[in-house]
């Protein structure tokens, strides 16, 4: 390969790695989607309790968000989500308390 093409190839590799990192962060922080569906299905198949508490925000909120209006809206939407999911949260709390008292996690 020509030495003139090596910097170009290096730049393409760097851009590809950066994009892969962005996709990984998006996948890990997604509140829904294929990864979440697969995790839920796997737990259901193996008879393991599955809890995921991730509110979906109307605008996508970046991990490094600093705008007060966006953060206040995110807090408000989270409060609404917690209220709407109160039964699931209470179920999780009971499950955790039972696991803690018995010394092992219930299935």
UniProtKB/TrEMBL annotation:
<protein>
    <submittedName>
        <fullName>85/88 kDa calcium-independent phospholipase A2-like</fullName>
    </submittedName>
</protein>
<keyword id="KW-0378">Hydrolase</keyword>
<dbReference type="GO" id="GO:0052816">
    <property type="term" value="F:long-chain fatty acyl-CoA hydrolase activity"/>
</dbReference>
<dbReference type="GO" id="GO:0005739">
    <property type="term" value="C:mitochondrion"/>
</dbReference>
<dbReference type="InterPro" id="IPR047148">
    <property type="entry name" value="PLPL9"/>
</dbReference>
<dbReference type="GO" id="GO:0035965">
    <property type="term" value="P:cardiolipin acyl-chain remodeling"/>
</dbReference>
<dbReference type="GO" id="GO:2000304">
    <property type="term" value="P:positive regulation of ceramide biosynthetic process"/>
</dbReference>
<dbReference type="GO" id="GO:0047499">
    <property type="term" value="F:calcium-independent phospholipase A2 activity"/>
</dbReference>
